[in-house]
Write a structure and sequence with these properties.
It contains 25 helices and 18 strands. The protein is of the alpha/beta class. It is globular. Bound molecules: thiamine diphosphate (TPP) and magnesium ion (MG).
């Protein structure tokens, strides 16, 4: 039992409540008299109080003798505000009613509450927000059940290495729980539900313990490799008066400076890169801050080498002449590859196919030297295997990619003489030409089926770009396999892209895009996202949050009326078993009835356009939707697309 509960002055209110419970129960059925009850079952039944009667009898009297001028929740709010947490996304629940009430009254709705209709939405919102704003926000959920709903989004955030402060109400002391829901919604150790895919969790037993754990949680969540953290908040701690206000202290938060790779190892990497004929940079979740992109550009330009960006973050300008992301054949030509903050290194360096049976072969040259730089080797878990298959490497440097790049670039520069410069310049020009050819090819490919209905994804993306290219836009979501934007749009600012789900848990795209839009709202940026129809239906209620909180976003539904990725999996199986693909639509399509996404959007209070089947109708519908977004509200455009 905590000191708080042992101390004599702790919670006079509880003491009175407790006395009330004992007193009421004693007045109704003194245990010693139960056996002496009348024999008549009717009379006997009336004399034994049921749970409702007990609950009614044990309610605090109308005039509560305690004037509680503060609550533990108030202090918790002070701690969150001291940490600069701007938003608290919630699906409201009694297990954290103390905190909720304190936010709205003591905190004057600071952190600002974002109302969500599902916990999965609240966490995904926070995931998208953190990647766009560079700051974590908090979400709160209801004990065991709310946390169970939140799990997949927490998993996506964990796989994506994104900080989210997850809070869950719990009633630790069994003798304080009301009959019924408070028992089934409480647990001994509720953090256990998410421990395998959070970076840290705790269940503070006092307010000082809470303050230290909240600051520690924030620090752990925001230290690379980042990740979600969880705090179980005891209801009594939230609701009861602060017993020792003078003894409480909000600890000082000082962010951890991300580690730079060892200078000797960076020098060795620089030597390999400078001496290589065809060096190549590959990256995924590299840019943490706006500096990340500039640092990567500096290294690539110094070496005049190709960059293959897996777009886990906004790492490299899409139209940079050295951007070779759509020329993966370069992997097979490289003699030195530096992989910076890569997620799935083996997957990127391997050709894998499951068309017939699962098989793979390396995409790399047999004697290619592979260098890794990043925090991947510093943190992993056992059960969830997001680390991918083992990849042999020649030099592994532990250090934050973004923080290590300037030193690596300097080390490269120190080794370059005029002879190198000439060779490098020639290499850069060759890469630029090949890239231009790729872009021209993409433009030609994009015109295939330009006027067809259903609308091609290339046309959908081109029409959207046409409407938004002069805005201060951010693309914050793409449907699966939708690569046209990265092939053809001009991504050049750090806030123009924020990566993908991390765990490929479907249902991310709509709420996470709205979270990113919430971050963009403040600076007046224009947020646009594409999302699959299948993804949309996991969390359509996220649109209500966008409408309610006036979060502007242009959300384009890539509506192929299917879980098309799964259609292809069934086709693959049927093909392999030589049974024909005609039945691949069973269980994988979203037709009969067709879902009307514009009507769903309108039902949530958002603007809705569509379904658009004729490509000629697309531009006017998008123009109307863009006008709505610019007025500060969400708009959905349902585009019936081919599945490509
Ligand atoms: C939570 C979850 N359930 C199921 C899946 C399996 N899954 C992978 S892709 C996909 C289809 C998603 O449909 P949609 O968003 O319309 O994209 P499409 O494949 O049609 O482009 C599904 C169901 C998953 N990844 N995550
Ligand atoms: Mg689909």
């Amino acid at each position: 039992m905590s000191k708080r509960r042992r101390s004599a002055d702790s919670s006079r209110r509880n003491f009175l409540k407790g006395a009330g419970v004992a007193g009421a129960a004693a007045a109704i059925v003194p245990p010693a008299t139960v056996n002496a009850l009348p024999a008549d079952p009717q009379i006997r039944k009336a004399a034994i109080p049921g749970p409702r009667q007990i609950a009614a009898e044990t309610m605090p009297p109308a005039a509560d003798p305690v004037n509680q001028t503060s609550s533990g929740g108030d202090f918790m709010v002070d701690v969150f505000n001291a940490l600069g947490i701007e938003y608290l996304a919630i699906n409201c629940a009694s297990s954290y009613r103390g905190l909720h009430e304190a936010v709205v009254n003591h905190g004057n709705n600071k952190p600002e509450i974002i109302t969500c209709v599902h916990e999965d939405i609240a966490v995904h919102l926070a995931q998208g927000y953190a990647k766009m704003s560079g700051r974590p926000m908090a979400m709160a959920c209801h004990g065991v059940v709310g946390l169970q709903h939140a799990t997949m989004a927490i998993y996506n955030s964990w796989c994506d290495r994104v900080p989210v402060i997850v809070l869950g109400g719990n009633i630790m002391e069994a003798d304080k729980r009301a009959p019924g829901a408070e028992w089934v919604h409480s647990g001994v150790d509720i953090g256990q539900i998410v421990r395998e895919f959070t970076k840290w969790d705790d269940q503070p037993a006092s307010l000082q313990h809470f303050a230290e754990s909240a600051v520690r949680a924030y620090k752990i969540a925001t230290t690379p490799p980042m990740g979600p953290v969880f705090l179980a908040l005891d209801a009594e701690l939230q609701e009861n008066p602060i017993p020792n206000a003078k003894g409480l202290r909000i600890p000082k938060f000082e962010p951890v400076t991300p580690p730079q790779g060892d200078s000797g190892a960076l020098a060795a990497a620089a030597k390999l890169l400078v001496e290589a004929q065809n060096p190549l940079i590959i990256c995924d979740r590299l840019a943490r801050t706006p500096a990340g992109m500039a640092n990567l550009v500096a290294l690539a330009e110094t070496l005049q080498c190709g960059v293959i960006d897996n777009v886990g973050r906004m790492n490299f300008p899409s139209r940079h002449p050295l951007n070779q992301s759509f020329r993966r054949g370069l992997i097979g030509q490289a003699d030195v590859i530096i992989a910076i903050e890569m997620n799935d290194l083996w997957g990127t360096l391997t050709h894998f196919s499951d068309r017939i049976v699962r098989q793979s072969r390396p995409s790399t040259k047999a004697d290619a030297k592979i260098i890794t730089l990043g925090v991947r080797d510093l943190y992993l878990k056992s059960n969830y295997q997001d680390f991918g298959r083992w990849q042999d490497v020649d030099l592994a440097i532990a250090g934050d990619g973004e923080a290590s790049l300037p030193a690596l670039t300097e080390a490269v520069k120190r080794l370059i003489d005029d002879g190198h410069k000439e060779i490098f310049a020639g290499r850069g020009q060759k890469l630029a030409k090949l890239r231009t050819a790729m872009v021209e090819q993409s433009k030609t490919d994009a015109t295939i089926g330009w006027d067809s209905s259903p609308i091609t994804t290339a046309r959908m993306c081109a029409e959207v770009y046409n409407q938004i290219k002069d805005e201060d836009w951010s693309l914050v979501g793409t449907a699966i396999r939708l690569t046209w934007p990265h092939r053809l749009w001009d991504f050049k600012k750090p806030n123009q892209w924020n990566g993908v789900s991390g765990g490929s848990g479907v249902g991310y795209n709509l709420p996470a895009s709205i979270g990113a839009a919430l971050a963009n709202k403040k600076r007046g940026g224009f947020t646009v996202a594409f999302g699959g129809d299948g993804d949309f239906m996991f969390n359509p209620g996220a649109l209500w949050t966008a409408a309610h909180h006036k979060i502007p976003i242009l959300y384009v539904v890539h509506n192929n009326r299917a879980y098309h990725q799964e259609v292809m999996h069934i086709q693959r199986m049927a093909d392999r078993h030589e049974r024909g693909i005609t039945r691949a639509g069973i269980g994988t399509t979203l037709t009969d009835p067709n879902i009307d996404y514009a009507t769903v959007a309108r039902g949530m209070g958002a603007h809705g356009e569509g379904p658009i089947t004729d490509p000629k109708d697309l531009a006017p519908a998008l123009a109307r939707a863009v006008a709505v977004v610019k007025s500060g509200a969400p708009a959905v455009v349902d585009v019936v697309t081919d599945p490509r």
